[in-house]
Inverse folding.
């Protein structure tokens, strides 16, 4: 399961662009992963330049 | 092809639109070390592949899409790709950069770039995937705007695909058509028109690959450091996300650098109504940004019930104060429309402003007035579709202004219009405009305005001191940065945030800082000569690019390497331009900027280009003619670019044409013969005949070739080589060449008799007249027989002196006779035979002569040589 750490996320959008199931959406000051849609492929985790995506 | 360096996918595709085939374009790691990527690597490819003198819209032109090693790696602000080709506005090099996701997805498909040549026979969509290129039919997309096109592609191929599309403007070869990727544009130089000229409607790319990282741990650490710098600097963490580039409206207006009324003035009293602050207050829905960017300077604004992309500073300036428009809502509409049509907002605004000034001065009544905005939306559509006066505006402001005899009213350099900064109050920025390789560009020009007017630390904007040196340094840095795949806005963080706090504007401290900066110019003077890539072997914290790039690629790229790589790129583009014939005369600005003070009471408010240019050349280690020295080319490893411009070898049409390759030789030969035969040559004749001797004595192979060519070919003028000197027009005996005070000349096929005199007249360093086989001409001439009626001939010798091939035999007191073997059926003899003699028969018929005809009037004097000839122009 993946989670985006709000304080670290810069909203650069790399995760959004690489998510194959469009599970990531904008919410306030950061992006958020929809747990219902997420298929746990790990792409967002791998592309995030500031390591804001946590594997929990 | 594959690379040992990180960041690169290792493959560049070479795509042939004519043959519908593709293969790999060979690039070595040595190329990557020297040219890095983006516009610089593209310039190398274009220099190698293109012959000089070709038409940007011809199948021979090549369009290159190129990413940098940073693109798609997630490093900050690296959703960037370059489009380079031959410039539709200037005829020199074109490079246009874009933040759309096309570059990222191209790399995911496994490619660093595309080299596209030829021309498709019908509208085509290129599909680029890991398995290669598919050429798909785009007939159903042709005519659609860019939004509809991308929506259709999304439906067809899925979401999150990289796209590069053109709109109607590109399809109709508007010279400033753009390429759109997502919501971003590659706006300048008419790259969209070049794409359209190849019948490429769209390119879509996707894949699952990732750019390799040479040192992943070091890279990630460097990226985090870089992001932190951007998050802590007020320019990149506050000003840009809150106000966007639109923050520059009030800043430029306050410093007198806001182009107003077609650059007539530098301040607009209602500029605040189109500012970033106004937008944030009344129209902004949110900010947005390119993928991988933490700055997020993009605007999202409301238009009715839609949320669309909002205008950038350039658009606000050029379609706001520059046309004296204070309605921000209208600019938002036009910006959206220009993106839909796929057209550059900067050149569009500049061309409309130029048209407004032509109207204001009574030169061309077109109904467009400064401050009047009702007609503009429809006009933009008309331009994109080349309808009505839109067709006249579709080729940019210079061609428009030239057409109406007023080129000085086009605000351009090298043929491309300036961005929205008035350089009469930022003279270094003006130098940048004049020396930028792609024309009037603020970025390629070095963006000196930041250090003269709008940045936190500035120098005296009116002083020419130190500007050339800073300009060179900035230009080089921008170049390297762009080549690496990075966005120039990361340089906003170059000046630490603390600077604006310790240097309050207009303070004593500011004055000291200004003096220090001006004095430091001397330190930067020896850049070209002395800076070698092994110098400055360190990284500067404020320039995180080098450390991050080194960690990514595994290349040794410290500050020295980076600066010299930028110098190499800039110099290579310069060599490309010089090969196209753009010499130091093209490092120029309109007289309004160099000779008329912007503030009438301050004579310093103009650009002292003639003072700065020599220092600029010296700093760059170029000679006094503005040509990079051999020493510099050696330092940069660009010796291959030092090809002398040999025109006879560089004209593609020359290969097909059997005319003599050396016009001078033939002229000399006939002059010698003339002396031998004691013939009197008519010095008063305005027509320039090549042969003034006795035809029967001279049957050289050259003449035979010339005769054969003129009997079977049509002549035409290549507009990109034509320098509007008017000599062909003066030489044409059939009045078949349309030329006005400065306009590129056009040969009327209907009137042309293929005598070749324009070809002879066109100066060899322009060589704009070309010739190609024509069945039409061949058939027509076969049916023609020209003879001199011996009973009517009054032995004046005029036909003899004007025959283009020397086919007429004549001596004083003797009847003239045509040697049929050498006759090219042009009928010039009949044209010049005096009306009251009228002795030449074409297919038995004499010239139709009016009863009251007077002797032929002398040709118009060369209007362009007379600066006061403005009254002689419009015919």
């Amino acid at each position: 399961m993946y989670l985006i750490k709000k304080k670290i996320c810069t909203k650069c959008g790399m995760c959004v662009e690489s998510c194959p199931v469009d599970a990531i959406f904008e919410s306030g000051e950061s992006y958020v992963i929809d747990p219902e849609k997420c298929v746990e492929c790990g792409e967002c985790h791998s592309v995030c330049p500031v390591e804001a995506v946590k594997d929990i | 092809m594959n690379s040992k360096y990180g960041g690169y996918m290792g493959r560049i595709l070479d795509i042939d639109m004519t043959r519908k085939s593709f293969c790999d374009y060979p690039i070595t790691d040595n190329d990557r070390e020297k040219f890095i990527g983006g516009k610089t690597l593209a310039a190398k490819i274009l220099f190698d592949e293109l012959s000089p003198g070709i038409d940007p819209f011809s199948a021979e032109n090549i369009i290159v899409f190129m990413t940098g090693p940073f693109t798609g790696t997630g490093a900050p602000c690296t959703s960037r790709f370059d489009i380079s080709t031959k410039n539709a506005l200037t005829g020199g090099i074109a490079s246009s950069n874009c933040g759309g996701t096309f570059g990222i997805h191209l790399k995911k498909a496994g490619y660093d770039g595309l080299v596209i040549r030829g021309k498709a026979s019908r509208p085509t969509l290129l599909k680029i995937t890991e398995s290669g290129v598919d050429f798909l039919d785009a007939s159903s997309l042709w005519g659609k705007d860019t939004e509809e096109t991308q929506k259709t592609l999304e439906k067809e191929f899925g979401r999150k695909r990289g796209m590069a599309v053109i709109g109607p403007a590109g399809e109709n070869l508007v010279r400033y058509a753009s390429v759109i990727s997502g919501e971003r544009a590659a706006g300048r130089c008419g790259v969209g028109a070049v794409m359209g000229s190849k019948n490429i409607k769209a390119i879509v790319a996707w894949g699952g690959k990732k750019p390799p990282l040479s040192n992943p741990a070091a890279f990630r650490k460097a990226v985090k450091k870089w992001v932190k710098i951007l998050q802590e600097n007020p320019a990149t963490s506050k000003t840009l996300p809150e106000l966007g580039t639109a923050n520059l409206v009030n800043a430029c207006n306050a410093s007198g650098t806001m182009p107003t009324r077609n650059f007539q003035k530098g301040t607009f009293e209602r500029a605040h109504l189109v500012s970033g602050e106004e937008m944030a207050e009344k129209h902004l829905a949110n900010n947005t940004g390119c993928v991988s960017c933490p700055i997020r300077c993009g605007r999202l604004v409301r238009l009715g019930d839609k949320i669309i992309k909002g205008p950038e500073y350039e658009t606000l300036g050029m379609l706001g104060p520059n046309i004296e428009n204070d309605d921000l809502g209208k600019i938002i509409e036009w910006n959206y429309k220009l993106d839909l049509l796929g057209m550059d907002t900067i050149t569009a605004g500049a061309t409309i402003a130029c048209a407004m000034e032509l109207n204001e001065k009574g030169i061309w009544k077109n109904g467009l007035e400064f401050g009047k905005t009702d007609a503009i939306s429809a006009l933009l559509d008309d331009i994109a579709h080349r309808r009505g006066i839109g067709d006249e505006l579709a080729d940019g402001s210079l061609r428009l202004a030239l057409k109406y005899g007023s080129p000085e009213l086009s605000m351009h350099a090298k043929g491309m219009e300036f961005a929205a900064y008035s350089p009469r109050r930022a003279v270094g920025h003006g130098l940048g405009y004049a020396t930028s390789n792609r024309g009037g560009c603020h970025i390629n020009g070095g963006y000196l305005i930041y250090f003269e007017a709008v940045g936190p630390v500035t120098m005296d904007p009116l002083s020419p001191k130190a500007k050339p040196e800073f300009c060179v340094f900035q230009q080089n840095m921008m170049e390297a940065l762009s080549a690496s795949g990075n966005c120039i806005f990361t340089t906003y963080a170059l000046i630490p945030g603390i600077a604006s706090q310790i240097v309050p504007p207009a303070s004593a401290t500011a004055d000291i800082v200004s003096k220090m900066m001006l004095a430091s110019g001397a330190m930067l003077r020896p850049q070209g000569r002395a800076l070698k890539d092994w110098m400055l072997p360190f990284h500067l914290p404020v320039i995180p690019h080098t450390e991050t790039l080194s960690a990514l690629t595994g290349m040794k790229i410290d500050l020295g390497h980076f600066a010299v790589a930028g110098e190499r790129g800039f110099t290579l583009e310069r060599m490309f331009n010089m090969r196209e014939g753009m010499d130091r005369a093209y490092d120029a600005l309109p007289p309004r900027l160099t000779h008329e003070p912007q503030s009438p009471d301050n004579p310093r408010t103009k650009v002292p280009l003639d003072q700065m240019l020599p220092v600029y050349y010296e700093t760059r280690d170029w000679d006094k003619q503005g040509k990079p020295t051999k020493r510099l080319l050696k330092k940069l490893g660009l010796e291959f670019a030092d090809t002398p411009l040999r025109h006879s070898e560089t004209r593609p049409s020359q290969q097909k044409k059997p005319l003599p390759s050396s016009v001078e030789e033939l002229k000399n030969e006939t002059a010698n013969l003339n002396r031998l035969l004691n013939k009197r040559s008519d010095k008063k004749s305005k027509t320039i005949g090549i042969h003034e001797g006795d035809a029967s004595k001279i049957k050289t192979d050259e003449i035979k070739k010339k005769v054969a060519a003129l009997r079977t070919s049509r002549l035409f003028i290549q507009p990109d080589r034509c320098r509007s000197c008017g000599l062909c027009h003066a030489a044409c005996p059939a009045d078949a060449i349309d030329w006005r005070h400065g306009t590129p000349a056009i040969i009327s096929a209907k009137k042309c008799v293929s005598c070749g005199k324009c070809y002879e007249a066109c100066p060899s360093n322009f060589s704009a007249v070309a010739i190609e086989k024509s069945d039409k001409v061949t058939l027509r001439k076969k049916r023609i027989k020209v003879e001199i009626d011996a009973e009517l001939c009054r032995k004046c010798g005029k036909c003899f002196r004007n025959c283009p091939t020397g086919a007429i035999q004549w001596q004083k007191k003797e009847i003239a006779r045509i040697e049929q073997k050498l006759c090219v059926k042009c009928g010039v003899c009949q044209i010049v035979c005096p009306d009251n003699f009228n002795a030449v028969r074409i297919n038995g018929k004499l010239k139709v002569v009016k009863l009251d005809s007077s002797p032929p009037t002398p040709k118009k004097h060369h209007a362009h040589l007379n600066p006061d000839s403005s009254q002689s122009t419009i015919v």
Q: What stands out?
A: Chain B has four domains: 12-205, 234-422, 426-643, 648-865. Chain B touches chain A at residues 73-76, 101, 104, 159-160, 210, 220, 223-224, 227, 231, 289-294, 296 (CB under 8 Å). Residues 645-661, 676-698, 853-875 of chain B have pLDDT under 50 and may be disordered. Residues 559-579 of chain B form the longest helix (21 residues).
